[in-house]
Amino acid sequence: MNTKRIVEAILFAANRPMTIRQIQETFPELEQPDTLSVQMALDDIARDYADRPIGLRQLASGYRFQVREGLSPYVTRLFEEKPARYSRALLETLAIIAYRQPVTRGEIEDIRGVSVSSSIIQTLLEREWIRVIAHKEVPGRPALFGTTKQFLDYFNLTSLSELPTLEEIVNFDFGNSPQPQPEQDHSERPQIAEIEQPVSPAGQTDSETAASETELDAQTEAGLGAENLTLH
Which of 65, 102, 130, 181 has a 20 to 30 Å separation from 48 between CA atoms? Predict the structure, then answer.
């Protein structure tokens, strides 16, 4: 049995990232390879694809094949559906949750200086980028929001420690490709409050400002430069 060839075929055919355990369970019960064998196969496959336009990527929820960075503008022309675009208000809300989690809706509003519309929270929940992870032990027990593995997968991250630093976000040139940045110390999680945008006039809500906001692509706005085109 050639474990490497079978693992490669499983990943190529899968329509989602696969963990080592999920890969093992794809084999017949009496032929399941051990964890070390699967990991060695994954390492070999990654080396085989190192110089190809397709690579093996480890994400928060497992391994998957995906198109290399820089090639997505060509590949996306194969798909009729246009990439989803999101308002600045939604992206600011997502960024606050990512950097300050766990956080309540009220705390998000305090940071942004405007009310957070229910539709923004609902959209993030429906996309499975955020979830309710607990309830704060204060009167009313408001929900505490945090990000999900789907959020990490979408932005090509394996953990929250890989989020760009605030310096990288502030210095990101949204009109051009990001320039290489020196290695940053991720030991301390950055505080989103340091890069807050000017708040809207008092009492103004997201719904009132949405018409004037420019819609931005979620990946570009986040400054992550993620390439998340997968092969199915």
Answer: 181
Which ranges of the chain have pLDDT less than 70? Answer: 80-83, 166, 169-232
Give the fold, CATH level 3, of 85-176+188-221. Arc Repressor Mutant, subunit A (1.10.10)
Query: Domain 3-78 maps to which CATH number in 3.40.50.150, 3.30.390.10, 1.10.10.10, 3.30.460.40?
Result: 1.10.10.10
Are 223 and 178 contacting, i.e. CB atoms less than 8 angstroms apart?
A: yes
- What separation, in Å, do the N-terminal and C-terminal C-alpha atoms of the chain show? 24
pLDDT at 172: 54
Where do the H-state alpha helices sit in 79-232? 88-100, 105-112, 118-126, 149-154, 166-170, 206-209, 218-222
pLDDT digits (tens, 9 = 90+) for 4-54: 999 999 999 998 899 999 999 999 988 999 999 999 999 999 999 999 999
3-state secondary structure of 210: helix
Q: Work out the angle at residue 151's Cα, subtended by the Cα atoms of residues 36 and 223, and round it to the nearest 5 degrees.
A: 110
